[in-house]
Amino acid sequence: MTPRPMTPRPSRRSPFAPCTPYPPDVAARYRAAGHWRDDTLGDLLSETARRHPGATALVGPSARSRHTRVRLTYQALVDRVERAAAVLASQGLAPGDRVVVQLPNVAELAVVVMALFRLGALPVFALPAHRESELVAFCRITDAAAHVVAGQGWGHDYLATAARVADTLRAEHRDPPVVIDVERCDLEAADPVPLRRSTPHGARASEAVAFLQLSGGTTGVPKLIPRTHADYLYSVRESVQICGVDATTVMLVALPATHNFPMSSPGMLGVWMAGGTVVLAGDPSPRTAFGLIAAEGVTTAPLVPPLVQAWLTRAERDRAALHSLRTLLVGGARLPDSVARRVGPELGAQLQQVFGMAEGLVCYTRLGDPADLVETTQGRPISEADEILVVDDLGTPVAEGDEGELLTRGPYTIRGYYGTDDRSSFTSDGWYRTGDRVRVLPSGHLRVTGRSKDQINRGGEKIAVAEVEDALLRHRAVHDAALVAVPDAYLGERTVAFVVGEPLANDLTAGSLTAHLRTIGLAGFKIPDRIEIVDRFPTTGVGKTSRAELRRALARGYTERSQ
Ligand code: OOB
């Protein structure tokens, strides 16, 4: 007997807030050019399963037994996704609901995310490193219906954090999200009931928002990025072509899998589109990665620059493990030219640099590019339809080849953040201000030369300066705080916080401030690498804190009173 299609219940949550749309003529152009199509992320796996039912889609640890390596064919993965969608629907999740997904790289992550797409619910992609401070903000902005976590066995007590998030929201008279723990909840408990397709946002289901990604941010509050099925699938399809992903690709995902880079550039979704295999690493260590590469015949992996350096060190004694590796995708932060030059000879893989952002634009060096461009540039945009503008401080376009701030628009770059009226990252004619300083070469390749936004890039992890300073200022004995970046050979940048105490606050120490930041639940990577307590800040001519002077003071090794 074929089960009757199930109609999910309507949501109890507030409706999805409207997002800044693409102008109708621009949207029509993207449709006419074939960039935007009618399929959705919920169809992706079943379409590949029709072509390659018995191929291996996913290998990875399981949340419920971390030493078992789960191995699923496309058919088996589709079956698990259908069951999980039914289980999630039975827990009350409905189309249009927002669901904070905070999972390590376990098989259940893939199942839950794809099940939410099937259901028409919207994942909010948190990172395992996020704590109460970020999670509460995501729940407030999205009115999240559920928070999916991996219990207590993955290096942190995620359940306890989820409970604290719920307490904070309850204290604010908000309805906290249902906590779904994939260590305990059996995602296969329900029959794979076909779900009736829902089109919550009108007829063009593919142009509805599919999920919310996180922005590295520059303000005190994290920002959420609304990406549509059509725009995201376009970027994934093109990335698959540019990176030569096909059914023989075996991709190792050692970075947090919900980040935009391993998710879509070309990422897990690209591999699943092409019928290849995704191998999830439960931890990012080179030891685990090298073991999986050798065991699974891994052909490619997305990496941030510090991991490339760690792989180079390990390869000095374990190069044989890498025999199957063909390409290495490196992005998230600037890869030093000197490290780029070592990838081919020492890892035996072709380097592809990736300069991307969760807001949209992704650039790649191409597989056929001359070595010099691959080693010294961050690639060129995916699409002819990506518009690039480089401007000076007044917003005027610079002369060709000159350095300036990068603005961009295109078929997969957002026009506004979710749930905020703050439009400061966008120009009135829809350009996204990336905050990155670049130079465009005659070939169209971009060289990232620096940054004009108040964000620190700690080995690919983005830290909004204002968010950390605000968190420090919440300490009763802190009068003022300034966070600056210092260059670091391994991470690119590390953070140093300068803090001025309130008068008579003699008990202020670096240790008490770190403890304060942990108590308020700031993600670990945002906790300053060093805290310096000083009597006063150097100021600029107009009396503003001079970050440049603080950086110079650090370089001199001088602080007025350091602890
Ligand atoms: C990726 O995305 P996000 O949203 O975490 O961070 C975006 C920012 C960029 O605006 C830029 O400041 C920096 O990260 N960045 C790079 C870079 N790739 C990203 N800076 C210098 N060189 C590079 N190659 O980080 C991201 C998203 C998709 C693909 C790859 C990376």
List keywords for this structure.
4-stranded mixed β-sheet, alpha/beta, 563 residues, Rossmann fold, 3 domains, binds 5'-O-[(R)-(benzoyloxy)(hydroxy)phosphoryl]adenosine, globular, 16 helices, disordered C terminus, GMP Synthetase, Chain A, domain 3
Question: What is this structure's SSE topology?
Answer:
Blueprint: H1 24-32, H2 44-51, E1 56-61, E2 69-73, H3 74-90, E3 98-101, H4 107-119, E4 122-125, H5 132-142, E5 146-149, H6 158-171, E6 178-181, E7 209-214, E8 224-228, H7 229-242, E9 250-253, H8 260-264, H9 267-274, E10 277-280, H10 286-296, E11 300-303, H11 305-318, E12 327-331, H12 337-347, E13 350-357, E14 360-364, H13 371-376, E15 380-381, E16 387-391, E17 404-409, E18 432-440, E19 446-451, E20 455-458, E21 461-464, H14 465-473, E22 478-488, E23 492-501, H15 510-519, E24 530-534, H16 547-555
Parallel strand pairs: 1-10, 3-4, 3-5, 5-6, 9-10, 11-12, 12-13, 23-24
Antiparallel strand pairs: 1-2, 7-8, 13-14, 14-15, 16-17, 17-18, 18-19, 20-21, 22-23
Helix pairs in contact: 2-3, 2-9, 3-4, 5-6, 7-9, 11-12
Bound molecules: 5'-O-[(R)-(benzoyloxy)(hydroxy)phosphoryl]adenosine (OOB).
Residues 216, 260-261, 265, 331-334, 353-358, 362, 378, 434, 436, 448, 451, 457, 462 line the site of 5'-O-[(R)-(benzoyloxy)(hydroxy)phosphoryl]adenosine (OOB).
